[in-house]
């Protein structure tokens, strides 16, 4: 984005930024679908181990939340771009990272203890 000369602090809208925002949404959705697919697989393959089934359900929930976070960020960023402002940073990536790391640690612990 470039700064407009007629209004300090206001940015020009470029279609490339809107398309990049859409690609970012698609990346969030791919990640969400991958987490949910892993959750379904884990829940199905661990039919006799309730802790692993619970982790599978956790992955399903995390994937669903990831899709929602991606959509909310897409809408907020699109609005910011269209109004010529910089998008506000969100907590979504940090929350997703914490969720993935936590579930991975729980999964490793269950495998090592079980």
From TrEMBL:
Domain spans labelled DUF202: 16-79
Pfam families: DUF202
Topological relation to the membrane, as annotated: Multi-pass membrane protein
Subcellular location: Cell membrane
Source organism (scientific name): Catellatospora chokoriensis
Residues that span the membrane, as ranges: 25-46, 52-72, 93-113
Gene designation: yidH
Protein name: Membrane protein
InterPro entries: DUF202, IM_YidH-like
Keyword Membrane applies: yes
Keywords: Cell membrane, Membrane, Transmembrane, Transmembrane helix
Gene Ontology cellular component list: plasma membrane
Principal localisation: membrane
